[in-house]
Structures are given as C-alpha cells and as structure tokens.
Inverse folding.
C-alpha cells in the first residue's frame, strides 16, 4: 500500500511534488491567517444596525475611527503606555538577563525557566493576582499599614496600575529575548575591547549593546505590539478611566455588537502595528548585527 | 455560583484581544457544514451558572438522550449566534426580558405547548400572563418561552456609610460626596439604561411621548436624553473607584469597605449576607431593589429554537423545561447561581432564604424596566466610547 | 629589562594557575611561552594584559609598575586566538578602535590605519566586515589591530591555531618580520613547538603554572634542562628505569630487559630511578647483517613513515617496546620486516633523575 503510494510519488514531476508538499502549509495559512484577515477587512467596509451586519459598502467606520476624538484618545493612550512599558521592560530585562548569563552558572536555565512560571497560569489569573498585590486591601497596602504608613489608594485602578501590570506580564518575554541574544554573544569580545583601550562601561556600549541590539529590538517589539492590542490588563487594573484601544476594540465585538466598527478598529490597529514593526526594523542594520560574525565562532 | 467569582453577567470576556478571531470564526460558521445528529440530542445555548449536572445526568438516563451545552454571556451574543444559522445548531436557548419576543419576531424560536409543561403551575403569577406578557407572542398570545429566574439591577450598599434614604434614589450613584467609593459594572447597556432612568427623571421626560410611542423604556432614548446620559456618565467616571469586571472584585471591594454603593444583580449582596451570617464578614451590606426614579429588572427564560421541527425533539424540549422548573431543581439553581427563581420554592426554603431571595417581593418586579435591546447599539456605543475616552 | 614579571602568582580558589613566575624580557626580543594546554601560559598572558589581576607579584613595563592598572592604561596590545574582531565593525573600524579609545585626532588615525593597512596588505579589505574575510585575512586584521596603536608590548595568544598549515608557515615569517621592524617585544603563547622554535629568540617552557626553563631556543631544544622539556620539545625516545652498574665499569639504565649504557651518570647512585632521552634524529638505524654489535640494539623494522625530506622508522624490540629513528630515507636502505640495529652517540643522551612524568 505505502509502496504503491511511493511509486506514484516518484512519478510526479517537481512542480506537482512542490504543490503537494506546500499545500498543507498554504491551506493552514489561508484558514488561520488570510481568510480571517480578509473577512475582517470586508466586514470593516460594511455597517451594523441593531446587531445586524448590513452589506453596504462604505468607509464610514474608518472615518469614525480616524476622526472621532474618543478612538484617537484610545490609540494615543495605547501608544503611550506601550512605549513606556516597552522601554521600562528593556531597561529591567537587560540587567536581569545579564546577571543570569554572567553569574547564573549551572542554574542559568533554571533561572530563565523561573521567569516562565507565571505563564503556567492564564493571563486573567495573573492580572487578578496583581489586583491582590496592588489593590486597596492588597499586599502592598497591608504592608504599608503594618508599618504605620498611609495606604496608597492611587496604585489600583489607574493607568499607572495598567502599566505596572503590563510590565509584569511582558518582562519575561523581553528578558528571554535578551537572554537568548546574550547566550550567543561572545563575552571574550569584551576582553578585546578592554585590551584595546575601553573601560567596562565603554566596552558595554561599544560592543555588548550593538551586538545585542537585534535581541533588544525583538524584545521591544514583542512587548510593544501586543501592548497596543492588550485588553485584559486595562480592563482589570486600569479603573474607569483606563480604557485602552484594544479594550475598546474588544467591546465592539463582545458587548456593543458594532462589529463593522470593531473590524475597522482592527484594521487600523493592524496597520499601526505594521508601521511600528517597519519603523523598528529600520533601526536594525543586519550587517552590523554581528550575525555569523567571525568573532563569535569558537 | 458561590464558588466561582465569575458570573455570566460579569461579562468576563477575558480574551478581548481574541475578539477579532472570534468574530472571524463566527463569520465562517454559516459556511461550515453541520454534522447530522446520529442519536437524539438536546443542544442548549445557555448561561453557565444554570447547569445542573445531576439533573442533566438523570434526564439523559430517563430519556435516552444526550444533553450538550454551549455558554454565552450577553443577550446579544446568543442573538448573533442564532442569527448566523444557530437555529440548526441549538434546540434550547435562554434570554432575558424583551429579547424573547425579538427572537420570535425574527423567527429564531418557535411556539411551545404550555400544557406539555405541568411545572408551569408552580410559577408565581407575576411571571405569567396576564401579569407578564413578554413570554407570549405579540400577536396571537401563543406561549414562546417559560420563565426561569428573575432579578433586578438594584443598588447594593454599605449600610454603615449610606442610609436607606440615600439609596432610595439613583442620585447616590452620581453624588460627588461619595467620590472614590462608588463602583459600577462594565456592561455598557445597563450603565446607560440606569443613567437614562435618572436623566429622564431629571428632565421629566419619562411621561412625555416617547420616541417609539410606547410607555417609557430606558432602552429607547431620544438623542437629547442620550446626550444627557453621556454627560452624566462622564461626570460619574471621576467618582468611580473602578468598573468591576467580575463579582469577585466587587465582593472584595464591598467587603473591605472600599466601595459603598454599586448597582448589581444582588448576587454579591447575597454572598456578603451569607458571610456575615457565618461571622466571616462584618460589613453591613444591604440591597435596594428599586430606587424611586425606577429600576431595571430581568426575567430569564427558556425557549425552543425554530430549528426544532419534528415532534419527538419538541417533546424532549418540553420534558426538559418541565424537569428544570420542578421546585427541587429550582431550589438548587437558587443556591448555586444566587438568583431568585420564578418558581415558588417557599415551601422548600427557610425564613432567611425567603427574605434573601425576595420570594415575597415578586410583585415589585412590575415596577422594574425589563432588560432590552438598545434602540441603537451604534449610538450607544459612541456614548460609551466618548465616556471612556473623556 | 623592558618587561619584568616578579614573583607573579595567580590562584583561582584552590587552583594555582600561575606560580611564582619571574621573567625578564628585553625590548627587542621575541619570546614564546611554550607549554601544553592547561599549563597556565594563557593565564600568564592575561595577567600581563591586565585582563586578570595577579594574586601576588609585580609587572613592570618600560620602567613603570602596571600591576594595578586596568588593561587600557598599560599600552599593551593583544592578538587573540580566535581573532575576536568586532563583528559589527568594518575592517577599518576595527583598526580604528584602539586609536579612538586613545582619542587620537582623526588625521593621525587615518595615517596610522594607512600605515598598518600597507604593511599588512589590508587596504583592499577596509570596507569589509569580518565575516566577509578568510581566516588568513582575519588574522592579518587582528594583527593590524594589535599593531596600529604602536603598543609597548604585543601579546599573541595562539594566533595561528585556527589557520591551516601552509598559511601558518607564511604567517610565522611575517610575524617575526613585524617584530623586528617595530622593535617591540612580542610575547607569543603557543603549544606548538615548531612555531615557538621558528620565530622566537627565547622560549619559556611553561608547565603546571611555573617556568621550567627560560633560555635561548637552541638551548631549549638541544640541552633540555628538565625531563619535561626533554619530553615536550622535539621528539625523543625515552628509557626509564633503575640505574645499575655494568661489567665495563660504566653505568646503565635497566629498561625493560635491555641495558641502556650511560655516558655520564653525574651523582646518580645505583638503583635510583632515572630517565634518559634521545632525540629521534639522533637515533641511528642500519641493516642488521649478523655481525656482532654489542653496543647496538637489535630489532625488527615494523614500518616506515615517509615525511618528505626524511623518514621515520618504527622499530619493534624483541621485548615488544618500540623505538623511533629518523633519517634520510635513501641513505638507510631498509624496508619493513628487516632486522635492524639501533644506536646513538651516548653523549647525546639526556639524563634526568627521578620518576617519569607522563
């Protein structure tokens, strides 16, 4: 049986074999990427009326998303918080990853896996756990009160709380990206930099930073783009005034039933995220990334 | 229900980011062929807290059928599922208030035979015609669903901080004096409808001619009233500690004394009363079902979809509704979901339960405005977004 | 002296990597640190460079104590084993790096880079990245980066280890030429005795963190001071065993069941253990035509390994042990399977007391 199949396979020419081999991949991409995206695009050009999608080709949804101050506010809030979160994550992840690589010894892997422990639970549980820490009667405030200090009311249900929550959620991604980058970095290059006249700090900026720039940028993008679409964290931590773009977009589908508008918001988000990725990719000069560099071979 | 912090009304649609793909999947649904059921199946589109595993197991054994469930949160979600061909995917469906008639108007559900459901005799008269018409078709008066559970969207409040006098008016939820101690749900429909009751009361337009020519319904608003609602909700936003996303959060916030007043389905009120009785909570939490300006209420129902055509399946649906409406099962539902039941279970309940579950107060439901579909979800969405972005 | 190491010691925990090293190196010298891997020679180099801090001792360069100075204040440059060129910089930028760190004016930088590019033929490669270079080209850039700042000392850590044989030979000659031209000491770490012997003025043989001997390269080769050097430098046959008196009045080493006559036994007493080494090129081989030869050892030629200008003869003794002799192939006219005689000039035998260190 399999022998017969194999013989038939041998009779196929290269084109047919290529088709046969790539068909599952193409089908997968079509089913899970192209078709959903296309349907979003199509729906964004229709309109809804009382929970009914009406095929009525128009650009009103885009006009609303781009001109209504409320959606612009959501987008601006999301861009700002995504930027703050990404920058803070990179700033925190660097020393963590660096410390693990340099001093982790044989516990390196364990330490990095430890970063992934919160992922064993869902995002909702993690956010709720943060509520338990930051909340009005959370660990932080209970601790402050134990010390006889005033509880901090402003920590919970504010945009700051959302940012703190997002940093907590995305720090492991950035740390892992930078860790993997440092794992492939040849620390002996620092010896060369020092012998040729650089102090510790200078050697970092001249050699370590540029050669781990790609990893850093990937970590940044891994935070920035999902932060733009993030809806759970602001919903649970952000308070009444903390609505971000992804949260507003989500409610178009789950609550208000204004699908067409939501789809247009999705397309706009897709474009903004794409532009961001493009801008970020312009920050990378692959020739200067150190990939396949002679210095890193053993 | 008491063990899970999430309720169907808490709208814990965690995966907001996944909404896009969810929408895409739903869109694709009509194009996917449906497998024909090989054995007799009863497929329910329902609210998750109402699942009674023991009852279902017994029912399956008795009728040799398979009972499968699909859950939803808001009425609009179930409505959209049915609209997109779901009448052939589901036999039984649940909804609130006015939604049942909407389903019937659009041919999503079919009429049922009240005579085949003897348990209806146990339902409080308040929930049956002529007192309650929404489960009968608008034209012929034929029965389209059975009442199941009911409740309000009253104000749960901390009696140590607020007097009964204060919570007798919706103004308490918009009073700057309580800034930082008020919370509200994250549901846009009920937030707008509740604010609309206050706005129309202030404007005195409740008794004026309404846009739809019918009696006042907070889900049918003029543009002026909507503008007033938007302004009021923007004012209120600064006073809110947060919008609670799940009952667990509201429970914590009220128990700790951080929040003094919040509109809710009275589940947190019942949870905290229970804790207080056990001595595990000191907070004196009370519930005001109907403020003087008016309140919101809901009656959950069971209906049979228009996809059920053969008499054997219809008979099975009737049998299911009859079974779940039996007082012993409704008693379990009340304990599990924390809701009041439309079936009279006073004979099975203690004095405390009679009070806690408002069993002697079903008549108050008449003063409540039933949950409904917003007159224009598009306009309401804009009001909500403007408020959130303000 | 130009570079002086005094009582230099470096320990890592309980492990002593460098133990009490004293070295004095002249300004025009090419010195090799020769030793097996793990002998501490690289650590010694890193101590000089300032990449490690010594536990004890002092380092003086050109009259200045640099022991506590960071690497970048020592005026020392280094060529690394795996080149360690900066992969994100072009060749020109790599060459400019040491000059930038010195805050040298741009014009002067360009001048230096041109100079070093000229002598190392790097001019055509300046805009390339290291991963676009061959191994030999990378080596030249690494060398250029070491020389461009005109350091006081150039350290080279097995710089040819990653190059193929032919290229290595060319580079040996080149490196030696630059050292002579620049007139600064090169300290060259290697485990390859051929490299050390071909380039150095003097060789320090490093073993177990210490210096076995620091002497002229011909002395190191032909008059090994310790049995380790005798074993490590050049190729020798070794005979180890107790010292015994033989009927002629001389002494010999009882090795397996043979007696190896000794020329001078020094203070070695009977029955003490000693080892004797004879370089394979001093080991003579001839056909055994049956005439008595009491001073020679009989064996059977097992194999001949042809090495070009000379050949190695693997001779199996009746006792099963093997001796290697080398010579010009055409001169010997023996072929595998022949019975042969092995002999040497007893004066060329190097004798050391004590156990053999393997």
């Amino acid at each position: 049986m399999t022998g017969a199949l194999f013989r038939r396979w041998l009779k196929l020419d290269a084109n047919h074999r290529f088709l046969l081999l790539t068909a599952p991949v193409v089908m997968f991409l079509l089913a899970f990427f192209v078709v959903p995206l296309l349907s979003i695009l199509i729906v964004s050009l229709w309109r809804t009326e009382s929970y009914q999608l009406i095929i009525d080709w128009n650009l009103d949804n885009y006009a609303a998303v781009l001109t209504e101050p409320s959606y612009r506010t959501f987008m601006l809030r999301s861009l700002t918080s995504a930027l703050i979160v990404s920058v803070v994550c990179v700033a925190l992840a660097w020393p963590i990853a660096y410390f693990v690589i340099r001093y982790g010894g044989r516990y390196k892997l364990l330490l990095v896996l430890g970063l992934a422990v919160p992922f064993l639970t869902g995002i909702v549980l993690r956010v709720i756990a943060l509520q338990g820490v930051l909340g009005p009667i959370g660990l932080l405030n209970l601790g402050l009160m134990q010390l006889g200090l005033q509880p901090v009311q402003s920590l919970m249900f504010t945009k700051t709380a959302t940012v703190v929550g997002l940093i907590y959620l995305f720090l492991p991604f950035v740390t892992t990206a930078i860790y993997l980058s440092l794992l492939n970095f040849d620390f002996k290059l620092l010896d060369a930099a020092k012998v040729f006249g650089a102090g510790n700090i200078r050697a970092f900026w001249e050699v370590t930073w540029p050669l781990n720039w790609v990893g850093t940028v990937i970590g940044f993008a891994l935070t920035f783009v999902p932060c733009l679409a993030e809806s759970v964290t602001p919903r649970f931590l952000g308070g009444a005034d903390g609505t971000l773009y992804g949260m507003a977009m989500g409610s178009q589908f789950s609550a208000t039933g204004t699908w067409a508008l939501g789809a247009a918001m999705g397309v706009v988000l897709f474009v903004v995220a794409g532009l961001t990725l493009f801008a970020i990719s312009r920050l990378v000069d692959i020739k200067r990334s150190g990939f396949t560099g002679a210095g890193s071979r053993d | 229900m008491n063990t899970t912090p999430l309720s169907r009304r808490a709208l814990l649609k965690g995966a907001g980011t996944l909404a896009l793909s969810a929408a895409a999947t739903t869109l694709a649904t009509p194009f996917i062929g449906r497998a024909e059921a090989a054995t007799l199946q009863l497929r329910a589109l329902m609210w998750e807290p109402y699942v009674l595993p023991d009852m279902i197991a017994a029912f399956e054994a008795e009728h040799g059928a398979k009972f499968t469930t699909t859950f939803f949160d808001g009425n609009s979600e179930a409505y959209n599922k049915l609209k997109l061909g779901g009448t052939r995917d589901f036999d039984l469906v649940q909804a609130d208030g006015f939604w049942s008639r909407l389903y019937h108007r659009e041919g999503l559900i079919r009429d049922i035979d009240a005579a085949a459901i003897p348990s209806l005799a146990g339902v409080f008269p308040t929930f049956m015609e002529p007192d309650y018409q929404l489960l009968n078709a608008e034209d012929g008066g034929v029965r389209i669903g059975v009442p199941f559970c009911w409740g309000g969207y009253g104000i749960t409040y901390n009696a140590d901080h607020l007097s009964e006098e204060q919570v007798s008016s919706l103004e308490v939820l918009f009073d700057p004096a309580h800034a930082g101690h008020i919370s509200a749900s994250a549901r846009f429909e009920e937030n707008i409808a509740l604010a609309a009751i206050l706005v129309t009361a202030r404007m005195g337009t409740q008794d004026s001619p309404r846009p739809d020519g019918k009696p006042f319904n907070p889900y049918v608003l003029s543009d002026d009233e909507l503008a007033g609602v938007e302004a009021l909700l923007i004012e209120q936003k600064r006073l809110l500690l947060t919008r609670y996303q799940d009952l667990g959060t509201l429970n914590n916030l009220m128990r700790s004394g951080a929040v003094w007043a919040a509109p809710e389905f009275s589940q947190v009120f019942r949870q905290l009363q229970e804790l207080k009785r056990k001595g595990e909570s000191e907070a004196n939490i009370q519930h005001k079902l109907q403020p003087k300006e008016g309140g919101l209420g809901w009656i959950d129902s069971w209906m049979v979809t228009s996809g059920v055509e053969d008499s054997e399946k219809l008979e099975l649906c009737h049998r299911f509704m009859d079974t779940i409406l039996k007082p012993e099962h409704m008693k379990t539902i009340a304990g599990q979901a924390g809701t009041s039941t439309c079936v009279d279970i006073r004979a099975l309940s203690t004095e405390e339960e009679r009070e806690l579950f408002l069993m002697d107060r079903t008549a108050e439901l008449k003063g409540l405005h039933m949950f409904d579909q917003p007159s224009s979800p598009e306009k309401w969405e804009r009001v909500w977004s403007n408020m959130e972005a303000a | 002296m130009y570079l002086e190491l005094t009582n230099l010691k470096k320990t890592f925990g309980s492990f002593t990597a460098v133990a009490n090293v004293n070295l004095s190196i002249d300004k025009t010298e090419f010195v090799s640190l020769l030793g097996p891997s793990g002998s501490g020679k690289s650590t010694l180099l890193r101590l000089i460079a300032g990449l490690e801090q010594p536990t004890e001792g002092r380092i003086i360069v050109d009259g200045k104590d640099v022991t506590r100075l960071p690497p970048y204040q020592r005026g020392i440059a280094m060529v690394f084993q795996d080149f360690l060129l900066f992969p994100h910089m072009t060749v020109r930028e790599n060459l400019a790096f040491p000059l930038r760190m010195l805050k040298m004016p741009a014009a002067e930088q360009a001048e230096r880079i041109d100079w070093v590019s000229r002598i190392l033929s790097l001019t055509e490669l300046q805009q390339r990245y290291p991963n676009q270079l061959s191994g030999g080209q990378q080596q030249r850039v690494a060398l250029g980066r070491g020389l461009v700042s005109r350091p006081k000392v150039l350290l080279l850590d097995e710089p040819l280890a990653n190059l193929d044989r032919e290229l290595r030979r060319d580079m040996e000659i080149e490196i030696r030429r630059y050292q002579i031209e620049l007139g600064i000491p090169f300290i060259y770490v290697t485990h390859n005795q051929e490299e050390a012997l071909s380039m150095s003025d003097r060789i320090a043989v490093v073993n177990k963190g210490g210096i076995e001997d620091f002497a002229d390269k011909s002395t190191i080769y032909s008059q090994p001071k310790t049995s380790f050097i005798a074993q490590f430098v050049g190729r020798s046959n070794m005979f180890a065993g107790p010292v015994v008196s033989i009927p002629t009045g001389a002494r010999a080493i009882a090795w397996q069941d043979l007696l190896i006559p000794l020329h001078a036994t020094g203070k070695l007493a009977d029955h003490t253990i000693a080892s004797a080494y004879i370089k394979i090129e001093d080991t003579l081989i001839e056909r055994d035509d049956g005439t008595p030869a009491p001073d020679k050892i009989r064996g059977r030629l097992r194999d001949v390994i042809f090495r070009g200008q000379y050949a190695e003869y693997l001779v199996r003794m009746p006792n099963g042990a093997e001796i290697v002799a080398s010579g010009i192939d055409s001169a010997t006219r023996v072929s595998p399977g022949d019975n042969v005689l092995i002999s040497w000039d007893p004066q060329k035998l190097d004798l050391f007391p004590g156990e053999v260190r393997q």
